[in-house]
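User: Hey, quick favor. My workstation is busy. Could you predict this chain's structure for me?
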Amino acid sequence: MFSREEASRIKQDFWTTFGQYMKPILSSEYMRVNWINYNTGLKDVYFRMDTKRKSAVIAISMEHRDPEIQELFFEQFLELKTLLHAELEEEWTWEMNFPDEHGKIVSQIYQELPGKSVFNKNDWPDLISFFKPRIIALDVFWENAKYAFDKLR
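Assistant: No problem, here it is.
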């Protein structure tokens, strides 16, 4: 078992490694991008990557405080579901209005990699291989889809 400080350091080391690995990769618009803190430009809509004790998750997370607006975001993504899944080349899980680990109500579209731990350095190549193609595909999707959200800005 790791102390809180050790766990935080290991996660920070992983994300630093991932960031260095992704740094030379340009966005679909041929621009530099912070892949770890990807900016959708849409308030309360995030592309999140997270490592847990025994899994990894990448998600489109809708976190607006107003549940009706959050639902509008989710419905707009539903309209783009075919485009999203075609770009990702896989089906993702869709969940509307559920409490996250902090009790905040969020909606997410996500993919999970079970059985891998950020605390096992031998799993890091698998974690990077899981996150890399998906965050790049989300970038390509978003470049084509972001205009569908203009009315929700």
